[in-house]
Design goal:
The chain is built from two helices and two strands; from the N terminus they run αββα. The chain has helices spanning about 5-50, 115-165, and strands at about 70-80, 85-95.
């Protein structure tokens, strides 16, 4: 672990640049997430306008937890880099068994629902992917911050030992 100050400074610079790139990507993903959510809410408002405010509301959602189930499955993978644990998230549609028949939530609002309600559902499902992507980027930013802290400590320790030797 006896690296020169120049190597440590170069590693710090590379990590800082990568951190800035990740921050830019996270901001971009957050903006995309906001846009998709806004479009989903607009489509939901259109559906409520078409069908009436009473026909698309929280009253159609089942109140017992047995009927409400997610269509997606969150997968968490943990990778270990230099002793640090980095979570990595992924989302996928659930694989259904014939016994576990999960009803599509859009059917709670009737058989013939407005197209704008289906579009709203797709927008909100799409927003899940952006949220997962933002969480992965944030986990990577946290990992790089930890690396930077250890590099700063190593640099300071190296500077102190070099000054003592001289």
């Amino acid at each position: 672990m006896h690296e020169s100050i120049d190597d440590i400074c170069k590693a710090i610079d590379e990590n800082l640049l990568h951190n800035l790139e990740l921050m830019e990507e996270k901001i971009s993903v957050n903006v995309q997430l906001e846009n998709v959510l806004r479009k989903g809410h607009i489509e939901l408002a259109k559906a409520k306008y078409i069908r009436g405010k009473e026909s698309i509301s929280i009253l159609q959602v089942p109140d017992n937890d047995e009927k409400v189930a997610t269509l997606f499955e969150l997968e968490t993978k943990i990778t270990e880099e230099t002793g640090k644990i980095i979570p990595n998230f992924d989302i996928s549609l659930k694989k259904l068994d014939k016994e576990d028949e999960i009803q599509d939530p859009i059917k709670w609002f009737g058989v013939l629902v407005p197209q704008s309600l289906r579009i709203a559902q797709k927008r909100f499902q799409e927003s899940l992917y952006f949220a997962i992507r933002a969480a992965n980027i944030q986990a990577e930013i946290t990992s790089i911050s930890d690396k930077l802290q250890s590099l700063y400590f190593l640099k300071n320790d190296s500077c102190v030992t070099n000054n003592v030797k001289e």
